[in-house]
Amino acid sequence: MPTYRLTLEYDGTRYRGWQEQKNAVTVQGELRKAIEAYLGAAVELGGSGRTDAGVHALAQVAHLRVARELRGEALLRETNDRLPADIHLLGAARAPERFHARHTAVARSYLYQISRRRTAFAKRYVWWVKRELDVAALAAAAQELRGRHDFAAFCERPEEQTSTVVELERAEVAEAGDLVLVRIVASHFLWKMVRRLIGALAAAGAGELRAGDIGRLLRGEQVAGFVPARATAPPSGLFLERVLYPGDEALGALEPAFPVPRNA
Amino acid sequence: MPTYRLTLEYDGTRYRGWQEQKNAVTVQGELRKAIEAYLGAAVELGGSGRTDAGVHALAQVAHLRVARELRGEALLRETNDRLPADIHLLGAARAPERFHARHTAVARSYLYQISRRRTAFAKRYVWWVKRELDVAALAAAAQELRGRHDFAAFCERPEEQTSTVVELERAEVAEAGDLVLVRIVASHFLWKMVRRLIGALAAAGAGELRAGDIGRLLRGEQVAGFVPARATAPPSGLFLERVLYPGDEALGALEPAFPVPRNA
Question: Rounded to two decimals, what is the model's pTM?
């Protein structure tokens, strides 16, 4: 069947996540409605993976299989005309029939925006951390995440996973004005893993975790006074930044999705 | 009386503009409520000028006169704790008693964000212009605005103004990704003037106005098929960027308040 690779951005604030559910407004559900209204036919539509309620995407990827050939440009325009304002289709290109948004993907990149100040504009797109943050300590803690580890301590319901071992390819930290940006790249992620890692990194930046503590948690040891699940960062600051497929361009420099406006 | 210079940012989407009104939620009204709740006393509070309903500010300035001395830091923190999430006090500094936010100001700078694409994130902060824009033509038209002109054609209710002559100091145009930014600086502005100028500049960029047409409108001539009031740009893209007082630092480079996220 003709297959298309769709790329889309969304503001997740209003949605119960990506994945279609009964009795809940989801991004996949809205996208399906828009495409099926345009084509007047049912389609097969699958995303690269779930994003949780309130999480945003700069470039979620989905595959679309339809019974007839379409022009990518018309699909893009007609779908956007039917989508709610907070979902936007960026691209629609013909793909090989074997293309599967989840199975073909080789890596996912997440971007997290921590704001060091209150902001009138970007509240939906940051986590405002009031504690004083030592960015060097936060960045050092991020280095402890790299490599192959058992992330059970940073996962919701680890008992439901086949495996909680993940190879974490990159954990980058950068400052951009009043924002602290964190990018985490891995082949796959566990439930709530990114938000729990960010919560732990913020705790390291605030001096609540010491050098080596993240490594201890990854080895299944306890760290007195710290429970990753209680430190989970809110979804507002989280963006699915890129989904990478074989042959895709490499990730660019770590930049904010939404800078907090420069101070006057 | 002890006088303070307040600097604040706000997302104007929810507000009926800056200026206090009976039976309407305004930025000045919310700011007064927060300060008076903290101090437990009535205060004198005046802004640099009105911003219309839906218009944002990166750095609106107000003067605050109170009966007793305050510490700027406490005023900042306690006021922000009481403000709605879409208004944020950036600074509060002791000022000379003669400081008056409106009368002491020597110039105002407005920033306008035109987006050349639909965006899931920044709808509240841009005007999405679907027409193809020639940015060089738009920038050339902006040059016609510079200098001393009668802006009656670009003003709502010109008959209520003492004078519609304004010296327009700067009209700058820049591209930033999918955004076209326009900055307009003048000592003062007439009602709806910026939004009507932006509407005319967009028409020039779209080829609906020709070179010299803006000059014709400024000389009170008619331009067939073009009525500035009907081309008024929406408030969503407009930000009061800076209010300049004697001795203030000059304006920096023209940059977006909110870039539309880079395309995947």
Answer: 0.92
